[in-house]
Amino acid sequence: MSTYLEAYGHRLRPGYPLSSPSPATFGDCARPARLPSVCRVIEVRDLTKTYPGGSREAVAGLSFTARPGRVTGFLGPNGAGKTTTLRLLLGLTRPTAGEALIDGCPYARLKEPLRRVGALLESGGAHPGRSARDHLRWLARTHGISAARVAQVLRLAGLAEVADRRVAGFSLGMRQRLGLAAALLGDPPVLLLDEPGNGLDAAGLRSLRETLRKLAAEGRTVLVSSHLMAEMALTADQLVVIARGRLLADASVREFTGAKGPGALEEAFLRLTGGE
Ligand SMILES: Nc1ncnc2c1ncn2[C@@H]1O[C@H](COP(=O)(O)OP(=O)(O)OP(=O)(O)O)[C@@H](O)[C@H]1O
Q: How much is the pTM?
């Protein structure tokens, strides 16, 4: 599969005459009955963002592609522009220049976005007085998603046993799990996750790693930002490294760490970013 994706993944655009049952609606950013895996691509093209009053560009001419079937780790020192890039991809802030596309479309033009893109940006968002289950049921109802799927994502995120507890009593790690459960609710082919490992204990990190690997193995596109180098070395296939809004590297974990193995990622990262 990877050879096929590598050969065609970044060149195809929605609307291409693939074997999709309804390519016409696909070009319109509607979801075809079966989304061709080669089109689940996240594309950032010459993306630039200067915040009003900002002294420098938060994102500066950034270009990269995250492809299906892989976990793409999005790395960079504090303030590098990772969250800004993810917010641009989700249409939460406007680019100063360039494009941030999913399936060839800006997020705002995607039909049924919850079923197309699962996002975890921060661990807040759930009403503290609600239980995890009620929060997810409410989200599911507003997007026409079944209660059975709620139970499924609660299990996937390791929250089944605390599903009926109020979110107010949740630890940071439990809130992160709830955020991940919400991101998975629509069974989306594309996932954008901003530091999902924050606050997770060792068991939580392992389970997150296994979940992300599995999601990628199912052919989904997983873009995940993180400061946890050891985790990224074990989780990611591809690494996109930025600093001061600019691309420093876009390489496989193997290319990054060489023969030294996953333990060498932190060293390579610090060397590349000048230990910022
Ligand atoms: N709403 C905003 N208004 C003005 N400047 C902002 C805003 N959000 C972020 N910035 C600035 O943009 C730059 C990039 O920030 P961003 O949060 O995207 O980086 P990051 O790589 O996610 O950092 P971290 O790893 O610390 O979360 C920083 O200089 C930050 O101060």
A: 0.86
Quick one: pLDDT at residue 113?
Answer: 87
Rounded CA separation 179/157 (Å):
9
What pLDDT shows up at residue 123? Answer: 63
State the Rg of the chain over Cα: 18
In this predicted model, what pLDDT tens digit does every residue of 22-55 receive, in sequence order?
A: 322 233 344 444 545 446 899 999 999 999 988 8
Report whether 165 contacts 154 (CB < 8 A).
Answer: no
End-to-end Cα separation, the chain, in angstroms = 38
Q: What is the distance in A from the centroid of ligand 1 to the CA of 83?
A: 7
Task: Tell me what the pLDDT averaged over the chain comes to.
Answer: 85
Question: Ligand 1: which residues within 6 Å by Cβ?
Answer: 51, 54, 58, 76, 78-84
- Output the CA 75–ligand 1 centroid distance in Å: 14
The residues, ordered by sequence, that sit 6+ positions from 70 with a Cβ below 8 Å of its Cβ are: 216, 221, 222, 236, 237, 238
pLDDT band (50, 70, 90) for residue 19? very low
> Distance (Å, rounded) from C-alpha 118 to C-alpha 147?
18
Atom of ligand 1 nearest to the CA of 83: 22
Pick the atom of ligand 1 nearest to 49's CA: 12
Q: Specify the ligand 1 atom closest to the Cα of 77.
A: 25
pLDDT at 199: 86
Confidence at residue 13, expressed as pLDDT on a 0 to 100 scale:
29
Residue nearest to atom 28 of ligand 1 (CA): 79
**What ipTM, to 2 d.p.?**
0.98
Ligand 1, atom 6, lies closest to the CA of 51
Domains within the chain, CATH numbers bracketed: 2-272 (3.40.50.300)
